[in-house]
Amino acid sequence: MRPFHSLWDQPALPGTFANGHRCTVQHTENNKTQFVQFADVFPLKSFGFKPEPMQYLEAVGWIELVAGLLLAFGPRLLQEISNFVLSIIMMGAIYTLLVLKEPVAMCAPATVCLGLLLLLNIHGRRKRKSKFE
Fold first, then answer.
1. Three-state SS letters, the chain
2. How far apart are CA 101 and CA 86, in angstroms?
3. Tell me: the pLDDT tens digits for 19-77?
């Protein structure tokens, strides 16, 4: 009888439990090197503000986490604010990737997220207008 293998044991899924630690370490190192590049082309650099790459990585991560949770579970006003904040972050991500001359395919996830955030914003405004009419 063949032993039971869960989906997580399959080698075709590199980010899963079997290879998780090694892939997580590689992914983290890749993120660190990318954020060094991202910090070099930071949009506010022309105003004299250049963040440290690790602080930049942590700040963006925390802002995305908090804004995402508020967007999903917060009251209407905080949802609108978090939508705006996440839209700014996505525009910054697209700007950064274009300045670094990354392939256009690298911009696709940020562009899709920005599009969804803008659709959510438009939908929220229509809903509010119909409520007041």
1. CCCCCCHHHCCCCCCCCCCHHHHHHHHHHHHHHHHHHHHHCCHHHHHCCCCCHHHHHHHHHHHHHHHHHHHHHCCHHHHHHHHHHHHHHHHHHHHHHHHCCCCHHHHHHHHHHHHHHHHHHHHHHHHHHHHHC
2. 23
3. 444 556 666 777 777 878 888 888 888 788 888 888 888 999 999 999 999 999 999 99
Q: What is the pTM of this model?
A: 0.71
Query: How far apart are the C-alpha atoms of 61 and 54, rounded to whole Å?
Result: 11
* Residue 82 structure tokens: 């978090």
